[in-house]
Specification:
By secondary structure, this protein is of the alpha/beta class. It is 15% helix and 26% strand. It has helices at residues 22-31, 167-175, 217-223, 238-246, 273-279, 315-333, 381-384, and strands at residues 39-42, 55-56, 66-67, 71-74, 80-82, 93-97, 109-112, 116-120, 126-130, 145-146, 157-159, 180-183, 188-193, 198-199, 209-210, 227-233, 258-262, 283-287, 291-292, 298-301, 307-311, 342-346, 357-365, 368-371, 388-392, 402-407. The strands form seven sheets. Strands 7-4-6-5-9-8 form a six-stranded mixed β-sheet, with no helix packed on it. The longest helix has 19 residues, at 315-333.
Length: 431
C-alpha cells in the first residue's frame, strides 16, 4: 500500500447495519488517511502552500555593499576627482553609481545626485563638489551605503516551516537564492461524472438532466485544498465504471490520490460503485451515513493507496456528502487539522428526523441561522443562496437553540460562521 494511506479502517455501515452518525463519518474520513509526503515546487507555484522546511538565506542579504541612492561613490573629503575605475577608489576620488550598484572598495559614503555638481578645475580635471542644496553634514561617513548582511546573515532562517506562503514570502525566498521550496503535499483529485441521462449543454428534454457537477466540482475541490486532475464522463455500465476507477487510461498525468464519483452509490441495477471497488481489490471504509440528504455516500480505499469518494447523484445530496466526508479526507491528506465546526443560534424550529442528522443550508442574518427554502436533495436554489450548513441533530431543533454549522467552501472566510475560538480545530459533537 502507498505511504499516503496508512490507516485503512474497518467499514462502517455495510448493508443491513447501522450507518455512522454525521460526526462519526467526518472523523472517520479524516482518520483513515495520512498526510501526503512533502513536495518540491517552483517558486511560481509556492504561494498558498504550506512550507515544510525552513527557508534560510543562502548568502548574506544583501550579498554586497550597495548604494541606496543615485549619485557618486566617494572616498575621503572633497572636492573629488571623477574616475572611471569601478572597483577601487583612492582618497579624494569619486565614481558615478546607481541605486543598488556595487560600492567600490575604498568608498566612504555615497553623495546623492541632488547634492553634487561637476565642474572643471584650472588644470582641466573633472571634479565633483557639493552644491548649494547639499544638506548640512553631507556626506556623512557610511551615508547611503547598504552594508552586506544588513537584512540577513548567511544561513539565517527567513521563513520558518509551517508558514502558509504569500507572495511576499515567495519574493523573499527568491532574493535569498532559492528556486524551489518544500511544501506540504496537496492531494490530486480526479472526477468521474456518471449518468447516461446527463446532458452538458442547453435545456434538457424530459428524462434528461443538465450536468450540475462538471462546471463547478473542480473549483470546489480547489477550495477544499485539493488539486483537480481533470474529469472523465461515463455512462451507466459496469465496464465503464471499472475502467474509470482503474485509472490507467481515463485521466491524463499521474494517478490521483482521490477519485470523486457522482452517482452510482444507490442499490439499483445501474449503481456499480461497490462492485467496481470490490473488483479492483478495494475496501469500503464507509458505506452510508446517518444524515439527510446525502445518506448513500460511500468512501473506499484501493490497494494502491488511492481513495474513492462516492457522491450521491442528486446535486444537493452530493454537495452535503462532499463537505461531510470529502473535505475531511482532503484535510488529512493535505496535513491540515479537521475543519472546524462552529456554533450558531437557530432562528427557526426544525422538525426531528429520527436516526439522522439533517443538513440544512442557511442564511446568516444578524447572527442568526435562517434555513433557506428549496433544499430538496435534487435542488440547488437554496444552496446557491446559503452561507453555510446547519447540522441539526436527529431530535430536531427549537428556535433560540444553538446548532452546529459548517461554512460552505466558497464562504469559508466568513468569520461569523466559525468563531475565532473554533477556527482551525475540530469541535467534538455527537449527532
Amino acid at each position: 500500500m502507498s505511504s499516503r494511506t496508512s490507516k485503512l479502517l474497518p467499514a462502517w455501515g455495510p448493508s443491513g447495519h447501522t450507518s455512522p452518525t454525521w460526526s462519526e463519518a467526518r472523523q472517520l474520513a479524516f482518520d483513515c488517511a495520512a498526510p501526503l509526503a512533502p513536495v518540491e515546487v517552483p517558486l511560481s507555484s509556492a504561494a498558498g502552500r504550506t512550507l515544510t522546511r525552513d527557508v534560510a538565506a543562502l548568502q548574506e542579504l544583501p550579498h554586497y555593499d550597495s548604494s541606496a541612492m543615485d549619485g557618486w561613490a566617494i572616498s575621503g573629503c572633497g572636492p573629488w576627482v571623477i574616475t572611471d575605475k569601478r572597483k577601487f577608489l583612492l582618497p579624494g576620488s569619486a565614481g558615478v553609481i546607481a541605486t543598488g550598484g556595487l560600492v567600490p572598495a575604498g568608498a566612504t559614503s555615497i553623495l546623492r545626485k541632488e547634492s553634487g555638481e561637476i565642474h572643471q578645475d584650472a588644470a582641466g580635471n573633472t571634479l565633483l563638489r557639493l552644491n548649494d542644496t547639499a544638506k548640512h553634514g553631507e556626506p556623512g561617513q557610511g551615508r547611503h551605503i547598504r552594508p552586506a548582511g544588513e537584512e540577513a546573515a548567511a544561513g539565517e532562517v527567513l521563513i520558518p516551516a509551517g508558514t502558509e506562503l504569500n507572495p511576499g514570502h515567495v519574493a523573499l525566498a527568491a532574493v535569498a537564492g532559492h528556486d524551489h521550496l518544500q511544501v506540504r503535499g496537496k492531494p490530486l483529485v480526479g472526477i468521474v461524472l456518471t449518468g447516461s441521462e446527463v446532458v452538458t449543454a442547453g435545456v434538457p428534454e424530459p428524462g434528461h438532466v443538465r450536468d450540475a457537477f462538471g462546471p463547478q466540482l473542480g473549483l470546489v475541490i480547489s477550495l477544499l485544498g485539493g488539486t483537480p486532475a481533470g474529469s472523465v464522463r461515463i455512462g451507466d455500465s459496469y465496464g465503464e465504471w471499472l475502467t474509470a476507477l482503474g485509472g490507467s487510461e481515463t485521466l491524463p498525468g499521474p494517478r490521483p490520490d482521490v477519485t470523486i464519483t457522482t452517482g452510482g452509490t444507490g442499490c439499483s441495477g445501474t449503481d456499480h460503485f461497490r462492485n467496481a471497488v470490490a473488483a479492483l481489490g478495494g475496501h469500503l471504509l464507509l458505506d452510508g451515513i446517518a444524515m439527510r440528504p446525502g445518506h448513500p455516500a460511500v468512501l473506499a480505499g484501493l490497494p494502491d493507496g488511492r481513495f474513492v469518494v462516492g457522491l450521491p447523484g442528486n446535486p444537493l445530496a452530493a454537495m452535503m456528502a462532499l463537505i461531510s466526508i470529502g473535505a475531511p479526507l482532503l484535510d488529512a491528506l493535505g496535513g491540515r487539522s479537521l475543519s472546524a465546526v462552529g456554533q450558531v443560534t437557530s432562528a427557526a424550529d426544525v422538525d426531528p428526523c429520527p436516526g439522522r442528522t439533517s443538513l440544512i443550508p442557511f442564511r446568516l442574518i444578524e447572527g442568526l441561522a435562517f434555513p433557506v427554502p428549496h433544499t430538496g436533495p435534487g435542488m440547488l436554489r437554496g444552496l446557491a443562496a446559503a452561507d453555510g450548513v446547519m447540522a441539526v441533530p436527529p431530535g430536531g431543533l427549537l428556535s433560540g437553540e444553538t446548532v452546529s454549522v459548517l461554512p460552505l467552501p466558497w464562504t469559508e472566510s466568513n468569520n461569523t460562521i466559525l468563531s475565532t475560538a473554533n477556527r482551525g480545530r475540530s469541535t467534538t459533537w455527537h449527532a
